[in-house]
Amino acid sequence: MNESTFTPGGGQPGIPVGSVAVRTFANNAAANQPMTTAHTMKMMDGLHVNATAGNESGRESTHFAAYDEVPEGHFYDPDAEYEPDPEYAATLAPDAARQRRERIGPTGRPLPYFPIPGPLTDHGPAKIIAMCNQKGGVGKTTSTINLGAALAEYGRRVLLVDFDPQGALSVGLGVNPMELDLTVYNLLMERGMSADEVLLKTAVPNMDLLPSNIDLSAAEVQLVSEVARESTLQRALKPLMNDYDYIVIDCQPSLGLLTVNALTAAHKVIVPLECEFFALRGVALLTETIEKVQERLNPELELDGILATMYDSRTVHSREVLARVVEAFDDHVYHTVIGRTVRFPETTVAGEPITTYASNSVGAAAYRQLAREVLARCHAE
Ligand SMILES: Nc1ncnc2c1ncn2[C@@H]1O[C@H](COP(=O)(O)OP(=O)(O)O)[C@@H](O)[C@H]1O
Ligand SMILES: [Mg+2]
Asked: 127-380 belongs to which CATH class?
C-alpha cells in the first residue's frame, strides 16, 4: 500500500497525521526520484494540502499550504492520487478534482485553510465544549471521542466528561462502566469528592476521562432538590480548569437537568446533526434551551457550530439536507463535514478513537480537520 505518514511542518514532530490520499508530488528536476522525498497530506475534502517537499536529508524543505501556493518546479497531478479508502472519500466529494479546482467545501462554501496548531508552552484555563443534541444517534459520542483525541494529538490537554448514564463514551474508550466504583455521579453528588479520584487516564496521551455509568441517571432526580442545581457540574469542574486546554462534555440525548448542567458549565456548544430527513426537527427547541441558559445561567455560552455528520454526498438526500442546514444556520455550520463510514462503529468495538484505530483513514482526517477548525474559531476570538 502506498500509504505514508505526514509529519506537519509547522506542528509537533512525531505526531502521525493520517495521510488520506497520498499523491505524487514530484519535483520536476528529480522526477525519477522515489516518492520518499515528498510527503503529502490531503484532507478528506480534497481541497487543502499541506506538504513538505524536499530531499531526504530534510534540507531545502519547503512547506506550503494550498494548491495554488505550489512553488515553481513542483506540479500537482490530481490523477496520480491514491485513496486508501476511495469509497468513503467519495461520500465527501464525488468530484474531488472539480471541488479542488474551485476550492468549494462540502457545505457549498469556499473552504478556508485551517492551520496546523503550534505547540503550547503552558496549559489552561480550559475552554469547555458541550456536545449537545437531544436526539440520539447523531454522533455526539463519536464526535466527543474523536475531536478530543485529535486535539490531544495537536498537543492540547483534553478532558472528556461522560455525561450520559448510558456510558457510551466510557465504553468507546475501552472502559467497562459496570466495573467502576467512582464515576462522575460521585463527583456531582458527594461533597469533598475530588476529581482526581474519579479521573481515568486514556490510552491517548494528553487525554483523560471522567467516566460514568447508570448511577448518573439517579443524579437527574437527586439534583432537583439541590441548591444551585444547574451549576453542579460547573462547580465540580472548577478545580480542573488549569490542568486542561479543552474539556468536552458528551451530553445525554435529552434536554433535562444533566444537559442544562453541561450547558451551564460550557463556554461553547457543538451540535452534531445527522444528515437525515428529520435532522432539523427539534433543533429549534435545542437553540431555545441554549438561549434560556444564556439568559438565566451562563451569559458566556455560545453556539460554536453545527457539525454535519454521517454525510453521504452520493445521495441527493444527504446533499439536500446539508444545503438546508447551511441555509438555516449559515456561518454556524462547520466547514468540516463528517462522512458516513462503518469505521466509526468499528472503533466503538475496539474501544479507541479513530485517530489511533485507523490513523490514516479519511474519518481520522475529518476529525483532525474539525479540531483545527475549532482551534481556529477559538483563536479568532
Ligand atoms: N460518521 C459516521 N458514520 C457512520 N456511523 C457513525 C458515524 N458517526 C457515528 N456513527 C455510529 O452511529 C451510532 C450513533 O453514534 P453516537 O456517536 O453514539 O451518537 P450519539 O452519541 O449522538 O447517540 C454509533 O453506532 C456510531 O458508531
Ligand atoms: Mg452518545
From this structure: alpha beta
